[in-house]
Recover the amino acids of this structure.
């Protein structure tokens, strides 16, 4: 009996010891309280497994298997980026994940998320739109979080209404309101927590889907910038999360009326590149600032948003980059690969853009001060690094450091209803932290300093990747250095053995980014390393890259790129308009017309009304009116029932002063679309 009593005491003693021995201790830190924005000093955070078990005074004793010495450094919750696109942005071709199943390519893509987000302290990301064939893959990532990767939560595709045009792979069409409700129920049954309603969604479809989402418990995130649904109307339909600060402008101004006026005010043309689009979103805030009535409407919208508890994501670094205001360039589109925006403004226009950006940031601070909940959503290729730039931009706009860190953490988690387990440093929440070497409260650029990142209670150590780093060396140091670096890295034991999926992804990124010399060099490395492996580039990628080279005037590179792609990837069906352009470039308009007539009914190319029309405007904007008219006439012959093709042809004729032909084509356009405002206005002028 005595021995039993002693053993029992020993068991209790051991159990007590085990209970007080934690898996991880982070000692003597300053904790950022994301709820109050205060900093609490002299604390030690104790973690068991992936969860915060205790927060104690740093003077108290404890026992832990691993200890990280805080040395009075700042500890904050992990960041959340509430608007990313992991598929497409990170090398994956849009349509299908099948090509990535070889050689564990899907894991490689997930590792890229760690490189681009977790490496910068972003421990949670919200995917705001992906092609539906990827849902099972990314939903599996969502359901199986990893300490080596950011938490990911997905929205599925971006919902748009039925349109007679080719949609991007991540845009999912709904045919009518009931079909929209069916899509919401489908996503709910698949286990999705979020959906994204995009700007091309018509009001009846939008209202039905927002209503069904409430019934199904799905959180709606809405991007509205198309004058179909305003933010105010979205709020009335029960939506509380809206994407991108710049989408405020079409909620107070009708673009059909005000975009031409804004262009006239700043003497700029309609945007021909994604960066010019972003810059014009900035210009709009200068346009609003110039008119007290418009500003009054904006203030009223802020008041309604604050009253209704609305949240709004930023996309701040993208618009800042377009205006030349960021330390780190990013764009809504990574292609072509570049380090500065594709804009062409004179000194006076740039000065006006600078002033407009100041207005943009002033209004963002006003929105915050009025109670609109801002959150960070970078919506760009290098989201983690862009995230840190956004923090510095907020500071430049007059935000306090405490408010900035709250926007970067708790605000996003609350908006996505993830704050029960994330977004603040409290007992019972997940142990996702950033421990800064230098304190951002002392200087905001310290967010760029070295940092210890802890995910699920484990210190994150980024994995090396030969393929990922090869891309950087080729771009930064050139083709010869890239080849030399690759073969040295292969012998370096610090790198794991290079995989097919890594090199494929590098080649694909460089080709789709329009970096011809680098892409060809990487392709030859791939074929040398894996001679029995096939490789294919998507024809849409080839087409998009070529058009970016055309816009940039890189005609020699364009020819090399186009010839290489058509020779090495003959199965990639490019668009017919691009083929016509190449013929005109080499041999003139007649050759282009012959190419079009020979292949417009062929399966060898993709014939798309919007692409042909875009090519016509590309010529028109560069002053090549004869070529523009020829291309628009091709489009008329291929799509005689489209009102838009006649409208475009009429505009081109008007450009050369042929009023009779312009009037004839505007009449044809209006006959097909009696509600065409541009056609009716043009006929009235004529």
């Amino acid at each position: 009996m005595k021995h039993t009593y002693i053993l029992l005491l020993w068991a209790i003693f051991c159990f007590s010891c085990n209970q007080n021995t934690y898996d991880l201790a982070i000692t003597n830190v300053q904790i950022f309280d994301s709820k109050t924005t205060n900093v609490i000093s002299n604390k030690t955070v104790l973690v068991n497994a992936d969860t915060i078990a205790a927060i104690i005074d740093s003077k108290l004793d404890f026992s832990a298997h691993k200890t990280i010495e805080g040395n009075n450094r700042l500890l904050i919750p992990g960041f959340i980026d509430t608007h990313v696109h992991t598929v497409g942005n990170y090398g994956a071709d849009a349509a299908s994940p099948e090509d990535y199943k070889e050689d564990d390519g899907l894991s490689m893509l997930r590792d890229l998320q760690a490189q681009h987000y977790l490496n910068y302290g972003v421990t949670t990301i919200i995917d705001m739109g992906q092609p539906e064939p990827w849902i099972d893959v990314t939903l599996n990532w969502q359901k199986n979080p990893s300490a080596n990767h950011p938490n990911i939560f997905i929205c599925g595709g971006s919902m748009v209404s039925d349109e007679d045009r080719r949609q991007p792979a991540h845009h999912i069409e709904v045919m009518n309101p009931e079909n929209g409700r069916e899509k919401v129920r489908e996503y709910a049954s698949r286990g999705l927590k979020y959906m994204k309603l995009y700007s091309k969604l018509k009001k009846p479809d939008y209202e039905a889907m927002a209503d069904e989402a409430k019934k199904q418990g799905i959180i709606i995130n809405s991007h509205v910038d198309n004058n179909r649904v305003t933010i105010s109307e979205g709020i009335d339909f029960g939506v509380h999360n809206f994407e991108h600060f710049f989408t405020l402008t079409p909620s107070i101004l009708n673009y059909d009326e005000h975009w031409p006026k804004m262009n006239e005010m700043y003497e700029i043309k309609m945007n021909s590149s994604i960066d010019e689009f972003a810059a014009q979103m900035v210009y709009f805030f200068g346009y609003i600032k110039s008119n007290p009535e418009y500003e009054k409407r904006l203030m009223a919208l802020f008041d309604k948003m604050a009253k209704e508890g609305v949240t709004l994501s930023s996309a701040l670094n993208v618009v800042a980059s377009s205006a030349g205001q960021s330390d780190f360039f990013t764009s809504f589109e990574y292609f072509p690969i570049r380090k500065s925006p594709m804009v062409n403004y004179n000194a006076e226009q740039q000065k006006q853009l600078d002033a407009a950006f100041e207005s943009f940031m002033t209004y963002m601070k006003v929105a915050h001060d009025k109670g609109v909940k801002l959150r960070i959503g970078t919506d760009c290729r290098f989201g983690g690094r862009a995230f840190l730039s956004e923090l510095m931009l907020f500071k430049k706009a007059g935000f306090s450091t405490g408010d900035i860190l709250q926007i970067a953490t708790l605000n996003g988690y609350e908006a996505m209803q993830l704050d029960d387990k994330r977004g603040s440093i409290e007992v019972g929440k997940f142990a996702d932290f950033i421990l800064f070497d230098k304190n951002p409260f002392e200087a905001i650029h310290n967010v760029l300093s070295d940092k210890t990142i802890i995910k699920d209670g484990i210190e994150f150590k980024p994995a090396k990747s030969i393929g990922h780093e090869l891309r950087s060396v080729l771009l930064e140091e050139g083709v010869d250095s890239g080849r030399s670096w690759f073969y040295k890295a292969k012998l370096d034991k610090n790198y794991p053995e290079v995989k097919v999926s890594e090199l494929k992804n590098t080649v694909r990124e460089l080709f789709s980014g329009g970096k011809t010399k680098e892409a060809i060099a990487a392709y030859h490395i791939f074929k040398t390393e894996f001679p029995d492996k096939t490789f294919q580039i998507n024809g849409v990628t080839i087409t998009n890259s070529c058009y970016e080279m055309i816009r940039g005037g890189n005609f020699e590179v364009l020819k090399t790129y186009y010839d290489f792609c058509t020779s090495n990837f003959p199965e990639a069906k490019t668009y017919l308009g691009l083929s016509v352009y190449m013929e005109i470039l080499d041999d003139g308009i007649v050759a282009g017309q012959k190419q079009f007539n020979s292949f417009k009914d062929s399966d060898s190319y993709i014939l798309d009304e919007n692409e042909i029309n875009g090519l016509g405007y590309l010529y028109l904007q560069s002053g090549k009116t004869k070529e523009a008219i020829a291309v628009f006439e091709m489009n008329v012959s291929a799509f005689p029932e489209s009102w838009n093709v006649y409208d475009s042809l009429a505009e081109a004729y008007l450009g050369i002063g042929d009023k009779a032909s312009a009037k004839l084509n505007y009449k044809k356009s209006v006959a097909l679309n009696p509600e065409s405002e541009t056609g009716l206005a043009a006929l009235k002028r004529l």
